[in-house]
């Protein structure tokens, strides 16, 4: 289940073609967003892999083909993806109904998409979706972001980002060790690794957001049940 924010009419057309080519079903257009899903068991579909591959294709196209919206700003792309059970079918009343997908899985995907704004990422997926992506090439593009509490949720969600260009080995090690120290509640160590590790990541917006989180927790430690866990701040 994916929700992506894409932009103008031309972008929506191009992104829709990518979703179609990867066997996705477009549920609806919500303003400048596309809501789509992949059905497990649909002939010729590898669901999680194809959903994530579609996101990577859109992301790469966004980087190579800059498009401007009506206000002249370059159109950006964000997507959130989750894997789970949902109800699919015609929903509504006897006078008006539509074919759609509903359920908690849909709600989670809808919360993951705006999380990109907070994490300074472009594609965010849940651990449930990540565990079903059985593609070595695709997993090279996946970065573990840590544990999050999504808005309206109680349980912790492990969150991953999909990046257009895989991190090099040193950068990946620095990021892994930073997140590991943060999750262990070793905030000062996490900051030191990120700032002084063999690969400088401080120019990366994703790393800058992590530093801000670390410094906030150093200044005021969270409750024990939120040790090493970040919270979604807004939709």
Largest sheet: spatial strand order: 2-3-1-4-7-9-8-10
Low-confidence blocks of residues: none
Helix content: 40-55%
- The averaged pLDDT comes out at 87
Describe this structure in words.
By secondary structure, this protein is α+β, with helices and mostly antiparallel strands. It has 8 helices and 10 strands. The strands form 2 sheets. An 8-stranded mixed β-sheet has the order 2-3-1-4-7-9-8-10. A two-stranded antiparallel ribbon has the order 5-6. β2 and β3 form a beta hairpin. α7 runs antiparallel to α8. The longest helix is centred in the first third of the chain and has 17 residues. The chain is globular and about 60 Å long.
Give the secondary structure arrangement, pairings included.
Elements: E1 2-5, H1 9-21, E2 25-30, E3 33-37, H2 48-64, E4 78-81, E5 87-92, E6 97-102, H3 104-119, E7 123-126, H4 127-130, H5 136-139, E8 142-149, E9 157-162, H6 169-183, H7 187-196, H8 205-219, E10 229-231
Parallel strand pairs: 4-7, 8-10
Antiparallel strand pairs: 1-3, 1-4, 2-3, 5-6, 7-9, 8-9
Helix pairs in contact: 1-2, 6-7, 7-8
Please describe the structure with a list of short key phrases separated by commas or semicolons:
alpha+beta, 235 residues, 8 helices, 8-stranded mixed β-sheet
Concise description?
By secondary structure, the chain is an alpha+beta fold.
């Amino acid at each position: 289940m994916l929700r992506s924010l894409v932009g103008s009419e031309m972008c929506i057309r191009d992104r829709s073609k990518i979703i179609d080519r990867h066997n996705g079903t477009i549920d609806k257009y919500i303003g400048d967003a596309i809501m789509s899903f992949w059905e497990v068991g649909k002939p010729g579909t590898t669901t999680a892999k194809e959903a994530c591959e579609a996101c990577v294709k859109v992301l790469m196209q966004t980087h190579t083909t800059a498009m401007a919206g009506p206000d002249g700003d370059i159109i950006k792309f964000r997507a959130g993806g989750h894997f789970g059970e949902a109800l699919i079918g015609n929903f509504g009343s006897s006078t008006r109904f539509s074919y759609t997908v509903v359920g908690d899985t849909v709600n989670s995907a809808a919360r993951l998409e705006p999380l990109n704004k907070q994490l300074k990422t472009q594609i965010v997926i849940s651990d449930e979706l990540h565990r079903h992506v059985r593609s070595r090439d695709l997993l090279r593009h996946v970065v573990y972001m840590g544990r999050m509490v999504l808005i309206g949720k109680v349980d912790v969600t492990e969150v991953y980002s999909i990046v257009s260009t895989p991190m090099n080995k040193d950068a990946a090690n620095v990021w892994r060790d930073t997140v590991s120290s943060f999750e262990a509640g070793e905030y000062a160590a996490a900051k030191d690794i990120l700032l002084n590790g063999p690969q400088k990541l401080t120019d990366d917006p994703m790393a800058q957001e992590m530093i801000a989180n670390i410094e906030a927790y150093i200044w005021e430690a969270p409750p024990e049940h939120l040790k090493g866990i970040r919270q979604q701040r807004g939709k």
